[in-house]
Amino acid sequence: MKLIRRLAFWGIAGAFCFSGGAIAEVNMTLTGVGTGANMGGVYTSPYVASINGVSTYVICDDFTTDVWVGDTWEANEYTLSEVGSSGPQKFTTPDWSPYSIQQEYDAAAVLAEDVMANIGNATLAGEYSYAIWTLFDPAAIDGYGGNSLTGSQQSAVNSFRTAALTQAASGGASGLDVSIYTPNPLGAAQEFLVVNAPEASLPATLGFELVALVGGIFLMRRRLVRA
After folding, report:
1. pTM of the model as a whole
2. Is the separation of the CB atoms in 111 and 45 below 8 Å?
3. I want to staple 93 with a disulfide (CB 3.0 to 4.6 A). Which of 21, 84, 101, 108 is the partner?
4. Which residues does residue 7 pair with via DSSP β-bridges, in sequence order?
5. Which residues 6+ apart lie within 8 Å of 95 measured at CB?
6. DSSP-derived secondary structure letter, 202
7. 110 vs 117: CA distance, rounded Å
């Protein structure tokens, strides 16, 4: 996600197609930074977005587009099986990658599930976030604005990305229930993934709403991920 890539620090750090088969277009609003860590100069996934009025944890796969809390845009929802060389997703196979675009997105889905499984561990969730970003932008490993990841963090990111790609290449991502929310038009916002599982739903608690409100105070640039 550099969804929330650049975060301003005010006492607390705060940063953040279309071919056939798409589910109906949806309305999205970025509402908060969720439980993401501040790593490498940006807040990492998960973030919080309103999707057709429903608060949902979202995971950014885009380290190059600027998004701010409060931004609203339209997106098309796709499944992993709808990924193809010409869309509907935001990215195509990087020239440097030996993997197909399907395998790249399958690996992103594997890592998105890892993010959601480690919401309580900000460091791990952050490393998985960077692993997703480096699938499509290897420069993400350097962090943002001179705020580099540590050597151990970079090693973890590379290890997690390699493992996810290996799993995806062997068909290990089949059956994952992960949706892709591609902005329409593509430059309108970052692209997000949503893990469709019980643990991915957002509890409607006062504490959560306060977290989202605090996150909304901070300006986020493209890496709100690079969210």
Report:
1. 0.80
2. no
3. 101
4. 220
5. none
6. P
7. 11
CB 89 within 8 A of CB 78: yes
Q: In the chain, helix, strand, coil percent, each to 5?
A: 35, 25, 40
State the CB neighbour count (10 A cutoff) for residue 93: 15
pLDDT in tens, 129-164: 999 999 999 999 999 988 999 999 999 999 999 999
State the helix-helix crossing angle for 151-169 and 122-136, rounded to 10 degrees: 60
User: Which band of pLDDT confidence, cut at 50, 70 and 90, is reported for residue 166?
Assistant: very high
> Would you state the structure tokens that stand for residue 210, as one six-digit string?
């306060």
- Listed in sequence order, the residues at least 6 apart from 91 whose beta carbon sits closer than 8 Å to its beta carbon are 61, 101, 104, 105, 136, 191
Let me know: does 220 contact 14? Beta carbons within 8 Å.
yes
The full DSSP string for 115-165 is HHHTTT-HHHHHHHHHHHHHHH-GGGGG-BTTBPPPHHHHHHHHHHHHHHH
Q: How many C-beta neighbours within 10 Å does residue 8 have?
A: 13
Contact partners, residue 206, CB within 8 Å, separation at least 6: none
Dump strand ranges (E) for 7-143. 8-10, 12-14, 23-32, 38-39, 42-43, 47-51, 54-60, 72-79
**Domain coordinates in residue numbering, the chain:** 3-225
AA letter at 132: I
